[in-house]
């Protein structure tokens, strides 16, 4: 009898232990489920990103501020969209300018998502948004360049219509806003503007010809200016020489007149000396190296030539 009582007590003790362990196990499993549900409902919104919460593929809300946020586990899903500015490399395109030149233009765009709901509703994905943005950029660039000459495109300062990049950016944003894509283009820039390969040689040849023509024009202007300067200088030199010669003639005439006065005054004091001087002067003009004079030996002229002065 006592043995049966002991067996019953042991059985109750074992059952109580199993119940206690079962309860602990259930609590542990419940805790794990609770933690799983908790972690499944919590997500982190980081700086520079949007968190889009969907329920049955429909957007129910968008978290924009950094920090912790919650969702309904299993019913709601979370996806991420970039909040920061992104760069998109636009495909190269061939454009015709106003002066009928074909050019290849290569652009890039800096853009960002402003309204995630509209972007998801109308573009669905970032790739689709970039595709639509590229289409608008190509359309606007083609229209704008079609109104400009080639030299205005390669040198935007010559354009009377302002900055090409600013105009393209403004017009693309107008189109994106019209169709409510929820994105904004911050800037559109031209990386490179090239001519098609088949046109490069002819354009380079024409450019060389234009430069040679310009150089020749500069040379012609320089020669004309040189000739004008030389003519003006020659004229001034002739005027200066003429004036100097005129002044020299006046001075020479005054000197000769003064010399004649001095000669007359001197010769009047000794008429015989004057006659001798005049005779000697006549010898200088009449007698040269090959002159032959035949005179009587007793003539005064001969005597003077032979050195007789008495």
From TrEMBL:
It is found in: Membrane. One of its GO terms (cellular component) is membrane. Residues 40-207 form the Band domain. The chain crosses the membrane at residues 21-45. SMART domains: PHB. Belongs to the band 7/mec-2 family. HflC subfamily. Pfam families: Band_7. Gene3D superfamilies: Band 7 domain. This is Protein HflC. It comes from the Bacteria. Keywords: Membrane, Transmembrane, Transmembrane helix. HflC and HflK could regulate a protease.
């Amino acid at each position: 009898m006592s043995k049966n009582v002991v067996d019953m007590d042991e059985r109750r003790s074992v059952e109580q232990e199993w119940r206690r362990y079962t309860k602990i196990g259930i609590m542990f499993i419940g805790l794990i489920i609770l933690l799983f549900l908790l972690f499944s409902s919590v997500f982190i919104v980081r700086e520079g990103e949007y968190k889009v919460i969907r329920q049955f593929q429909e957007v129910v809300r968008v978290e924009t501020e950094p920090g912790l946020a919650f969702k309904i586990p299993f019913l709601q899903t979370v996806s991420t969209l970039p909040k920061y500015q992104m760069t998109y490399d636009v495909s190269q395109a061939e454009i015709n300018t106003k002066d009928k030149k074909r050019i290849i233009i290569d652009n890039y765009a800096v853009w960002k998502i402003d309204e995630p709901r509209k972007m998801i509703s109308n573009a669905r994905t970032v790739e689709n948004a970039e595709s639509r943005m590229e289409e608008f950029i190509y359309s606007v660039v083609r229209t704008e360049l079609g109104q400009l000459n080639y030299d205005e495109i390669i040198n935007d300062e010559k354009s009377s219509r302002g900055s090409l990049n600013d105009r393209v950016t403004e017009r693309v944003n107008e189109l994106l806003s019209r169709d409510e894509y929820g994105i904004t283009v911050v800037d559109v820039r031209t990386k490179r503007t090239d001519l098609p390969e088949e046109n490069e040689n002819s354009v380079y040849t024409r450019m060389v010809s234009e430069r040679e023509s310009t150089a020749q024009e500069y040379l012609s202007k320089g020669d004309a200016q040189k000739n004008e300067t030389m003519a003006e200088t020659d004229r001034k030199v002739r005027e200066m020489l003429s004036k100097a010669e005129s002044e020299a003639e006046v001075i020479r005439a005054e000197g000769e007149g003064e010399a004649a006065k001095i000669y007359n005054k001197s010769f009047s004091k000794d008429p015989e000396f004057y006659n001798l001087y005049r005779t000697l002067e006549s010898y200088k003009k009449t007698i040269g190296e090959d002159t032959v004079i035949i005179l009587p030996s007793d003539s005064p002229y001969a005597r003077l030539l032979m050195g007789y002065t008495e």
